[in-house]
Amino acid sequence: MIDPHLARPETRTSAREVIRALLAPLARKNCWTLAEHAGHPAPYRIQHLLNRAVLDEAALAACLRGYVISHLGTEDVVLVVDETGDLKKGTHTAGVARQYTGTTGQIENCQVAVYLAYTTGDAHALIDHRLYLPSSWCEDPDRLRTAGVPEQVEFATKPEPARRMIATALEHTPHAWVAGDEVYGRNPGLRAYLEKRGVGYVMEMAATDTVTTPRGPLAVKELAVLVPGQAWRKRSAGAGAKGERFYDWALIDDHADTRGVRWVLIRRSRTSGDLAFFHCYAPEAVPLARLVAVAGRRWRVEESFQQGKGLAGLDEHQVRTWTSWHRWSLLAMTAYAFLALCRARELRHHPVPIGVVELACNEIARLLEALFPPESDLEHVLAWSVFRRVHQAHARRCHYRRQTVQES
């Protein structure tokens, strides 16, 4: 899949070895551990791949997108946009700053990136990504230069790269829907762009957002109080780990015009009563069940993050520059997509026997490692032990020297 976009045979070999190592059950995944698993005597080949090797990243991203679309098809597609954060120490890694991350639900020192997931009724994978640069970074040219950020990169709010990623995906799946959380649903520019293209969406809104009613502007949380009891419908937002996720749903017409129909969708928990609100749009009227199904697909991107991090090391990069971050993430997304598409193909062609749980990505990764173990010998293991200890000794000397200078 990726070979035509890598200039040299050594680069192609390194990329294949990295993808395979990313799927291995390693305790930690970084250039050192991947290189050891791949049988390299040192991490330099992988570091070269991530930093300096000649490769067309845009073409590789397009290749990944095409790989996923060709295997999952273009029917019943929902593009889900969301961001995730990776906790980091220090301040030199590209994009790292104290900022909010949904990973912990609070402000942390972290990197935040926006991803696009491609979801169908039975499968999902990540197909695009953009690293978010806080305004503090964009106001510091020296910091940008040190991290290798291209000169043409400027500050952009998260919905802006989301729109660009969605636009690229829609070139191949023009009838897809789009789903997203409040960050994207509350952005009028993104919603206007989708409506102009005639793309249906279901995106979360804040409880304090207002809509126009015959009584005048009302916050949607106030509107929920006015919904009559018979207007609520019990519907499943899709299957979860513990069964169907049933909620009560109410649909309120917002307005319609020549561009399409708009609604406010309200979701109510059947246990706690907690409410969530969604902007909805479609070029023509659709039933409640369709909007609920699109809203339910938002969980798929969370599953993609969880599996991409747990199985393919999406968040375990220990790289500092703009280029190395994008390359690592792209290779991790490719590794995870391979597992996701293997699972989809298996379920499509081999019905699950009675009394057996369907094959999961985790089990596929275990099977790959068991059936195709890496070649290793005692000499290789001992050589890596020496390599690590030599570099750790060098790092310790550097730390002590720096401490001495600071205290003098």
From TrEMBL:
Residues 4-213 form the Transposase IS701-like DDE domain. SUPFAM superfamilies: Ribonuclease H-like. Pfam families: DDE_5. It comes from the Bacteria. Transmembrane segments: none annotated. InterPro entries: IS701-like, IS701-like_DDE_dom, RNaseH-like_sf. This is IS701 family transposase. The lineage of its organism: Bacteria, Bacillati, Actinomycetota, Actinomycetes, Streptosporangiales.
